[in-house]
Automatic annotation (TrEMBL):
GO terms for biological process: ectoine transmembrane transport. PANTHER family: ARGININE-BINDING EXTRACELLULAR PROTEIN ARTP, MEMBRANE-BOUND LYTIC MUREIN TRANSGLYCOSYLASE F. The lineage of its organism: Bacteria, Bacillati, Actinomycetota, Actinomycetes, Kitasatosporales. It comes from Streptomyces antioxidans. Keywords: Signal. This is Ectoine/hydroxyectoine ABC transporter substrate-binding protein EhuB. Residues 62-294 form the Solute-binding protein family 3/N-terminal domain. The keyword Iron-sulfur does not apply. The keyword Magnesium does not apply.
Length: 307
């Protein structure tokens, strides 16, 4: 439900932190995000001593969560219920922090940081990848997941596609999503963006593969596996997860919750509860219904990812 990249990747972590989840924010889009965030109204109230937002939320009894309508990260389901990996974590943590109600505020992914900074909502709860550019605009909780990539291919994977290098070698027709980080990974393997089929989302990618308009759709492992399972596709399948590389180094994507820079008290209190959930195994139990596994759990920190 997370920046552009040609060769100008938004950083992630490990040996190198690269583009964000799906939003690679290519070129001008990245500038647009940062520019919009920079121009947004940012309240100075409560900025001293770590901010007072937590106290205000406790008094109100409600926290507003910014979501981007992306399955499985944060969305409104077919029954009209507010759910997703990040919102379900938020519901538990904020209740323990003395804020019993959560209110969704849907927006476009690129509007999440500007919306947070202009106080349209209190927290970004959208599985947003943590990287250096975003860390210059907001502060993050430690990540609640890390993610690898996977492909949608035709049944039986006739072209034997398991990574971006395979796509390049086989001269296969690749599709991926608008502003997805996977564009940059493919470019790093030698695939020209002009040769890619750019689609709005993973469902469009599945249909493109089923209809033969593309040999492969690239996305994150959870989104790819979820859409194939939900659609019960008879003509396509999802590959096993794999690690994407940039310049020969693993490009690790990990997502968390974003807060306004002055609200360190809220972020720190949130982290305390998040770490308890990780240690007890509760975090995995909460996110497992959304397709997350033990493989997506991580001990990375926001500090590492922001470097």
């Amino acid at each position: 439900m997370a920046p552009p990249r040609g060769k100008d990747s938004e950083s992630r972590e490990m040996a190198k932190i690269g583009p964000s989840r799906r939003t690679l924010l290519a070129g001008g889009a990245a500038l647009g995000l940062l520019g919009a965030a920079g121009c947004s109204r940012v309240s100075g109230s409560g900025a001293k001593d770590g901010g007072n937002l937590l106290e205000r939320l406790r008094s109100q009894g409600t926290v507003r969560l910014g979501i981007a309508g992306e399955i499985p990260f944060g969305y409104i389901d077919k029954n009209g219920d507010f759910t997703g990996e990040a919102p379900e974590i938020a519901k538990v943590i904020f209740k323990r922090l003395g804020v019993p109600k959560v209110q969704p505020v849907p927006t476009e992914f690129g509007s999440l940081i500007p919306g947070l900074r202009s106080q349209q909502f209190d927290v970004v709860s959208a599985g947003m990848y943590i990287n250096a550019e975003r860390c210059a605009q907001v502060i993050f909780s430690d990540p609640d997941y890390r993610m690898r990539d996977a492909f949608i291919v035709r049944k039986g994977n006739p072209k034997n596609l398991h990574n971006y290098e395979d796509i390049f070698k086989q001269k296969a027709k690749m599709a991926t999503g608008t502003a997805y980080a996977e564009i940059g990974y493919a470019e790093d393997a030698g695939i020209k963006q002009s040769d890619m089929l750019i689609l709005p989302d993973q469902l469009a990618g599945l249909l493109a593969v089923e209809q033969g308009r593309a040999d492969v759709f690239a996305g994150t492992t959870v989104t790819v596996h979820n859409v194939v399972k939900q659609r019960n596709s008879q003509r396509a399948e999802a590959t096993e997860p794999f690690q994407a590389y940039v310049d020969g180094k693993p490009d690790i994507g990990a997502g968390g919750f974003a807060f306004r820079p002055e609200e360190t008290k809220l972020r720190d209190a949130f982290n305390v509860e998040l770490h308890k959930m990780k240690k007890s195994g509760e975090l995995l139990r909460i996110v497992r219904p959304f397709g997350f596994t033990k493989e997506e759990m991580t001990d990375l920190t926001a500090e590492e990812l922001c470097k």
